[in-house]
């Protein structure tokens, strides 16, 4: 049995080399890659068991900034979500702790509009196997209701959030590479079915769908310790005890046993609270006990290598079209809606 950790490490080193070769091939190939094989996805995730910074290491050795256009970002002064004067503070904060809560609270007219949209658009009751339907806010039956990316982008304010140049710039500066707007996630979390904590991402875990990435979360309801705050184990984006490095869910007790209980941070705030989070660090959503929570998330990654991704179809607003013309690399998943190209 003493040899098993050495064998596991050797396997992960071998998988790291294979991931490196595959990611380089993905980056060099100009053809669209709607999928990465499940075998390669598994090996990428397993390679990250070696160290929380492994994905960033691999990304810097596979993704090359061959053109200045890859760095092009629209003027951050056009952002209604981020104060441009706070961008460098945000980068420094994420580097230090793994997360940063912006001091600017997003205007309530924006959060009210997104929440009103979320109350009527069809969503998917996670784990229920039922057709999409509007969120039953007065009588939820599952712990999480997901609004899929394509219907979410019917909301102009969601498009504005997803294409925000200030957020793209923070991600570029933090990851030190060009970035691609990778996904939009949008969901309600409820007090129902607290026993589904694993299904609803309410146990500590790392995100490993991409090599190198940064996420943003905005609260669209007031979030207290009782209504499902995002919880982060400070510093685990850089350092993680070996007992917690294996992919998968971890209990609160396991985090405490590893000596990290004092680093557990609950991020609360009013509607409009915005945070940047490196979710390679340990994190979870806390199960609400007194009301629901609505959150909107966007992710910027250095490559689309990894998990399958969408090329959503939606009607772009004039602002989205303008931003696409200014930063087509960042918004490349939106090429067809913004250019009208149906090929």
Compact summary:
The chain is α+β, with helices and mostly antiparallel strands. It is built from eleven helices and eleven strands.
CATH architecture call: Sandwich
CATH class equals Mainly Beta
Structural class: alpha+beta
What is the approximate shape? globular
Low-confidence region ranges: none
Number of strands: 11
**CATH homologous superfamily grouping:** q2cbj1_9rhob like domain
Main pleated sheet: 8 strands, antiparallel
Query: Whole-number average pLDDT?
Result: 92
Name the quaternary structure.
single chain
Count of separate structural domains: 1
Classify the beta-strand content into a percent band.
15-25%
Rg computed from alpha carbons, rounded to a whole number of angstroms = 20 Å
Helix share of residues? 25-40%
How many H/I helical runs? 11
The end-to-end span amounts to 55 Å
CATH topology value: Jelly Rolls
Order of helices and strands: HHHHEHEEEHHHEEEHEEEEHH
Which features characterize this protein?
alpha+beta, globular, single chain, Jelly Rolls, 343 residues, eight-stranded antiparallel β-sheet
């Amino acid at each position: 049995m003493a040899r098993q950790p050495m064998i596991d490490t050797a396997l992960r080193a071998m998988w790291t080399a294979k991931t490196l070769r595959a990611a380089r091939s993905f980056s060099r190939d100009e053809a669209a890659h709607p999928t990465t094989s499940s075998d390669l996805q598994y090996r990428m995730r397993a390679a990250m068991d070696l160290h929380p910074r492994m994905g960033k290491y691999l990304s810097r050795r596979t993704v090359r900034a061959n053109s200045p256009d890859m760095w092009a970002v629209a003027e951050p002064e056009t952002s209604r979500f981020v104060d441009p004067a706070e961008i460098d503070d945000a980068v420094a904060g994420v580097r230090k702790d793994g997360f940063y809560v912006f001091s600017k609270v997003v205007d309530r007219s924006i959060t009210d509009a997104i929440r009103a949209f979320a109350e009527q658009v069809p969503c998917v009751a996670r784990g229920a196997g039922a057709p999409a339907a509007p969120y039953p806010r007065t009588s939820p039956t599952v712990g999480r209701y997901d609004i899929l990316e394509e219907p979410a982008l019917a909301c102009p304010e969601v498009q504005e959030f997803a294409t925000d140049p200030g957020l793209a710039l923070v991600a570029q500066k933090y990851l030190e590479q060009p970035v691609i707007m990778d996904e939009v996630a949008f969901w309600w979390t409820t007090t129902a079915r607290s026993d589904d904590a694993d299904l609803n991402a309410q146990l500590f875990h790392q995100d490993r769908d991409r090599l190198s990435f940064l996420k943003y979360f905005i609260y669209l309801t007031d979030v207290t310790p009782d209504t499902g705050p995002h919880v982060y184990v400070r510093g685990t984006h850089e350092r993680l005890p070996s007992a917690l490095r294996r992919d998968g869910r971890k209990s609160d007790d396991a985090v405490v046993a590893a000596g990290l209980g004092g680093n557990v941070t609950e991020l609360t705030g009013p509607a409009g609270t915005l945070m940047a989070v490196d979710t390679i660090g340990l994190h979870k959503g806390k199960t609400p006990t007194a009301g629901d929570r609505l959150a909107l998330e966007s992710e910027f990654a250095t490559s689309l290598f990894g998990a399958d991704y969408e090329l959503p179809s939606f009607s772009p607003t004039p602002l989205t079209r303008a931003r696409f013309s200014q930063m087509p690399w960042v918004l490349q998943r939106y090429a067809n809606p913004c250019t009208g190209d149906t090929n």
